Amino acid sequence: MKIIYIGCSLALWVTAAMADLTIVQTMETSAMPEESGKGFTMTMKMKGQQARIDFSGKPMSSIIDLKAKKLFFLDHKQKQVMVMPLEFMQSMMALSAPGADTGRDKPDIQKTGKVQTISGYKCQEYKGSSGGGMTIQCWMSDVPEVLEMEPFRVYAQDAFKATSFGGLAALKGLIVRSESTVLTNDKPVTSRTELQSLSKAPLADAVFSLPADYAVMGMPSLPVP
After folding, report:
1. Is the overall model pTM greater than 0.85, yes or no?
2. Per residue in 188-213, is it b (16+ CB within 10 Å) or e — as a string?
3. Distance of CA 172 to CAs 3, 122, 129, 145, 156, Å?
4. C-alpha 198: how far from chain center
5. 173-222 pLDDT, tens digit each
6. Which strands sit side by side in the sheet containing 135-141, from one edge to the other?
7. 123-166 pLDDT per residue, tens
8. CB distance 149 to 15 below 8 Å
């Protein structure tokens, strides 16, 4: 579930900045019933070919390094880090992400023509659905920072092409708000995100460094077909 959730977050924020960026968004999902009605905050910090994701109230972080082609899962409670090749995550997503089975068609996401200003951003509305039970509605803004997001968008588009998030990752733009429903184990999981802030303040290299006192964990095994 952790890998799926980090993957979904990446699909929603397919960004890699050439300049430093910090994006903060609120998130709500029925996949975490203990957070029902409260939601939580996800902070994504980006510098060059690296990105770091942190969740409020959660003792875990993830660091994505496109140059090294590695993904790092940090467990702050246990002081452990799991190192995973990016292609391994792609394989995990292909096996376990919603809509990954080839028997389900992928959603066709189209611009509706409706325009709405959200948090000061002029947004275009997109909607899509699939026979596999997924629906998505999102509001995207074509801001200058979009030009700095291309490397991760290309990676995410390839990583999620076999899942229900493939069409979403293919879109270019900053997602200011999103609402989605996917079927997981034949049960609907609803999620909602909304952008809270975007900053281009410089970030220290240390933000993307691994703590020296964390033990390295082994990778999970892929399920045998």
Report:
1. no
2. ebebebbbeebeeeebeeeebeeeee
3. 24, 15, 19, 11, 12
4. 16
5. 888 999 988 877 778 888 899 999 988 899 999 999 999 999 998 766 55
6. 110-118, 121-129, 135-141, 174-184, 187-199, 21-29, 40-47, 50-55, 60-65, 70-75, 80-85, 215-217
7. 999 998 876 677 889 999 988 766 666 666 666 666 556 555 55
8. yes
> How far, CA to CA in Å, does 170 sit from each of 87, 89, 219?
18, 18, 28
Q: Which residues contact 173 (CB under 8 A, 6 or more apart)?
A: 124, 140, 141, 142, 143, 146
Q: Where are the domains of the chain?
A: 2-217
Rounded CA gap, 3 and 11, in Å?
Answer: 12
Looking at the chain, how many residues does it have? 225
Stated as kind and residue range, the H or E segment containing 156 is: helix 150-159
Q: In whole angstroms, what is the distance from residue 111 CA to residue 113 CA? A: 6
Arch. (CATH architecture) of 2-217 = Clam (2.50)
